[in-house]
Amino acid sequence: MNFLAETTTQEAFSLVDRIGQWLLSNGVTILVIILVALLVRFVVGILVNRIFQTMYQSGSRISRMTNVVVKKHPDAGLAAAHEERRKQRADTLSTASKNVASVVIWSIAFVMILAQVGVNIAPIIASLGVAGLAAGIGAQTLIKDVLAGVIMLFEDLVAVGDYVDLQFAEGTVENVNLRVTQVRGLNGVLWTVRNGEIISLGNYSRGLGTAFVILDIASSADDAAVTEAIHAVFDTLKADQKWSKLIVGAPQATGILSVDGARYQRRITADTIPGKQWDVEREIRKRLRAEFDKRGIEFALPRFQESA
């Protein structure tokens, strides 16, 4: 019994000794690998932030990477909108780049740790290659979505907060990543669209917006008085700082577009900063209604169709 106890004790001490030697040799190396990976990830994060922050501050909109040239507009409101969009894009690309860098860094660190603990990584790499090929064949749709997402991000086709029309989904963009784009419709529905399925994209928040108002006016109204009322509304909009900063240039009013029995039509257009065209449309209608009431100008009555 004493002999067995001594043998067991010796084996235990031997095991502890081997574990200690392994920790001294391999454990320290593994710890160094992890610390170096953390350091590299930290440094890369700082560099990526600085690169995209510099691009944002210079106003380049990353034109060297996407061959996109954005001309500065003299209007202060539009310039502010462009500046905000540059910032959003820089933040989006910075986050995506850091995520990709993290995956690469930690993948390399994991392979190095496996090699350090004595795992033969050659068969693993070969197996991953075969598995990757099989997965690639079966995940063509995913690859298509990711590639489309990369192109969308770098070409600045869409950003969070934009109002877009994706044919089968329309609304405000709430999230854009490499695989999907999420759009919140006016009725509150959140649409999730795979990037690879986006064939055409209409972005109402890019460049200038256009407020578009059609007026149906009673044919008995004096058109000269109508014109005076319209320009009076234009003057009040120009004098109102809240609305003048949203409108680019001067609003325009056409002549008579059409005459139909007891009515005729006029059209008003106004260029606006991106995404504000609907707000300006509502304000123009509101002020026109008040101005017409004050001047005694009547809108045309709605058409009614007789039932058969």
Walk me through this protein's architecture.
This protein is α+β, with helices and mostly antiparallel strands. It folds into 3 domains: 2-138, Helix Hairpins (Orthogonal Bundle), CATH 1.10.287; 156-203, SH3 type barrels (Roll); 209-295, 2-Layer Sandwich (Alpha-Beta Plaits), CATH 3.30.70.100. Helix content is 57%, strand content 17%. It is built from 8 helices and 9 strands. Strands 4-3-2-1-5 form a 5-stranded antiparallel beta sheet. Strands 6, 7, 8 and 9 form a 4-stranded antiparallel beta sheet that branches. The chain is elongated, with a radius of gyration of 32 Å.
Instruction: Give me the count of strands.
Output: 9
Residue-averaged pLDDT, rounded?
A: 78
Share of helix among residues? 55-70%
Radius of gyration of CA atoms, rounded to a whole number: 32 Å
- Helices and strands, in order, run as HHHHHEEEEEEHHEEEH
How many individual domains?
A: 3
CATH class of the largest domain: Mainly Alpha
Note the gap between the termini: 112 Å
Q: Structural class, from helix and strand content?
A: alpha+beta
CATH overall fold name of the largest domain: Helix Hairpins
Mind summarizing the main beta sheet?
Answer: 5 strands, antiparallel
Major sheet strand order: 4-3-2-1-5
The best one-word shape is elongated
Residues in β-strands, percent: 15-25%
Unreliable runs: 60-74
Question: What is the CATH architecture assignment of the largest domain?
Answer: Orthogonal Bundle
What's the total helix number? Answer: 8
